[in-house]
Design goal:
mainly alpha
């Protein structure tokens, strides 16, 4: 099994999922963010420990992780301030 080809296929899948997540973020973006995060973790686990991670992989981990956390944060803001939730809802 060729590991370079596997990593290339995972990168291609990650790229496609990021595009789909951007396009469909209002409808099923949360489900896509979970898929992107899981694939990013799989790619992260395939890199050697002494090798630096590519910036694209770091960005995918950060953005998909933030996208997963945002609905939970917005629910917390509902209880603190309706105005804060109203302003924060434009970010999501």
């Amino acid at each position: 099994m060729n590991t370079n080809k596997d990593i290339q296929n995972l990168y291609f899948t990650l790229f496609i999922l990021l595009i789909v997540e951007i396009i469909l973020f209002l409808f099923i973006g949360l489900l896509m963010a979970i898929a992107v995060f899981i694939i990013s973790i799989i790619i992260y686990s395939k890199f050697p420990k002494n090798c630096a991670l590519p910036n694209g992989l770091k960005l995918a981990l950060i953005t998909s992780g933030a996208r997963i956390i945002m609905p939970g944060i917005s629910v917390i803001f509902i209880f603190f301030s309706p105005l804060t939730f109203f302003l924060f809802s434009f970010v999501i």
